[in-house]
Structures are given as structure tokens and as C-alpha cells.
Amino acid sequence: MYTLYSMQSSGNCYKPRLLMAQLGLEFRLADTDSFDGSTRTDAFLQKNPNGKVPLLELPDGRMLAESNAMLLHLSEGSHYLPADSYERALTYQWLFFEQYSHEPYIAVARAWLHLVPGGRDKAADRLAGWHEGGYKALGVMERHLGAADWFSGSAYGVADIALYAYTHVAEDGDFDLSAYPGIRRWLDRVRGEPGHVSMDWRP
Amino acid sequence: MYTLYSMQSSGNCYKPRLLMAQLGLEFRLADTDSFDGSTRTDAFLQKNPNGKVPLLELPDGRMLAESNAMLLHLSEGSHYLPADSYERALTYQWLFFEQYSHEPYIAVARAWLHLVPGGRDKAADRLAGWHEGGYKALGVMERHLGAADWFSGSAYGVADIALYAYTHVAEDGDFDLSAYPGIRRWLDRVRGEPGHVSMDWRP
Known about the structure:
The structure is a homodimer. By secondary structure, the first copy, chain A, is an alpha+beta fold. Helix content of chain A is about 50%, strand content about 10%. The first copy, chain A, folds into two domains: about 1-75, Glutaredoxin, CATH 3.40.30; about 85-190, Glutathione S-transferase Yfyf (Class Pi), Chain A, domain 2, CATH 1.20.1050.10. Chain A has eight helices and four strands, in the order βαβαββαααααα. The longest helix of chain A has about 30 residues, at about 85-115.
């Protein structure tokens, strides 16, 4: 069985939970809170020297870090990773876009405004920068969705899971999605996929 | 033939140049400077709505953004992407590590200190943060290299290319590699690989 070291409120940790639910993989959660120092203990750093969750322990005991690496690894051979070479390349593109141009703004704003006690005051001078970067990313997504239903090629797949994780809770970081109708329709399509589970769900 | 929209001094643009050289792929460079506005023109945004280089135009005219997506796409079926499923998963892991935990510190410090006119003064108050994040990433790499020769599993591959791109010029961002002997030996191993080309090289 897989073990996922995971913080329930983290969108990055939600990604492999959602994919494993949709793949029907059995796994257990090892709750690990990155806000209380649990990812910086010697024991955890032995498992992931980068000190982050999610961390996936494979059934044979080997470890894999990085949420989007888990998505690619777990989806190999399934319909959540496109079989077509170019569609697969675009999936890679959107996964890296998510980690570089989307998450550092939208997830970070959410963490400070929604998860960190007193974070709204502490982060007040950084919010404008996160909104600038985050709205730019949302604009790129909206433009894509004007001509396509999904980010993973012609069907729902791991690029949609990666981008859904923090986009569907962007309002927690004071992002207003009312001017992004394509994104709101895509969020509904993702929610309608077979086997979809919410961020609260636990195996 | 491939066309790579590329800025010669960018490590992200160097990654696909190096891999395409080692794969023996024919390609031409379309020089595109992200500092002079060339990536923000309407014509370029039609090609890449995220307004960044590198951008790869495939022989059939379709576009692919994100340097590490290019590495994965171009290396499929070659020995630069591990055939073993777990080694391939670790390759994914290091590629996402590079974009999230390494590049935003080491590449950004280099850009401001080495490429932006007057950048050393303008960025003075941010350098400590970039060094904190960058040295943390270098520490994770050094630890890995204590037990392994490569980041792409058992042989040189695209994770090594991705991490080499900015690590080998980390000193441009005032990073001191003298306390990282494992990294320095790995940099030498990368330089010794068949078909290696330097950042200056053009096809």
C-alpha cells in the first residue's frame, strides 16, 4: 500500500489524494503539518531532504517527493496521462507552469490569508505582488480555456488536477474569479469527473 | 527542423540547446530577449501566452513552452530519460525541485547581479533571501550526491541537464561552491559527457 505524508489543507497534498482516489489506489495518510515543524525533523528529513509535503512512500518503501512528479508517476499507463506525444508534452508544460507561474502566487496568497494565524497583517505588503502574478496566471489559463476544455490535451488528466488544486480555492487568497467564466466552467467540469473527491476527503 | 526561441544568457534556454546538441537534433535559434520586451509583443504572446523564453517550435509548427517540459518531451525514447519507472519518477522529482526550490533563488540572483544593468544595487535588499533559498537547494543537492553520481537515476540525463543549467553559473549570483565538493565533482562529470556544449554554443 502507498503512504502519503500529507497536510490536509495543502493543495499540493490534495493533488495526489485526488488522483489516487480516481485511480482506485489504496493508500493511507500520514498527517504531517508543515506549519508545526513536522517536515523539518531529522526523521522526516531522512525521508525527504527538501523538508516538504506531500511525500509519497511507494509500496516497496521507496520515496518520491514533489506533487507533480507523483501525478506523472502514478498516471503512467492510465487515461489521466495522454497517450499522444504532443498532448503529453503539453501536460508537462502545464505542470511546470503550475509550479512556477501559478502556485508561488495563488497558493502562497491563500496560505498567508487563510492558513497562517495573523497572516493577513503580516503579509499585507506582499499581497499586491501575489495578486499581480496570480492574475497573470489566471489570464493565461482563461485564454487557453477559450479554445480547449482541458489542460491535459483532449481529455481530463493530471494537468487539470494540478491546476485545479489551488485554482478552486483561489478565493481564499482574495482572488476574484468573476471575470474568468472559462475557468469557472472548467472548475465545474473537473468537479463532475467520475471519482472526484473534495479537498476534505480522506481515504 | 525545430526552432528554439531563446535568449543565449538564460540557463532555462540553455537546457534545450544542450539536450538537442547531445541528441544530434537539427535546430535553429530565434534570438528573443526577455529583457527588451521581445517576449511581450502581441506576435510573441500569440506563440506563448505566458510571455517567456525558451519556447520550442516543433517541426510541424506546434509550440511547446517550459524548459523542463522540452527536456521531457525531447528525451522520450532516448537514454537521457530513464527507462526504469522509479528512476523516471525521480527525474520528474528533480525537474520540479529545480523549478520550485532552485531556479527562483539561484537563477534570479544571477539575473539581478550578472545580467540586469545596475541590478546589484537595485536588488540589494533581496539578495539575502535568494542566498538562503539557494544554499538550501545546494545543500539538498550535495546530500544527494553523497550517495549518487547523477540526478537522473543511474546515468546522466535530463535532470542533470536541468540542474546544471544554473548551478554551473551560480557564482554569477555570488554563490560560493567551495563547501560543496560533491556538486563541483558532478559539474565536472556533466562537462565530460559526450556531446556536451557550453552555454555560449550556438548551432
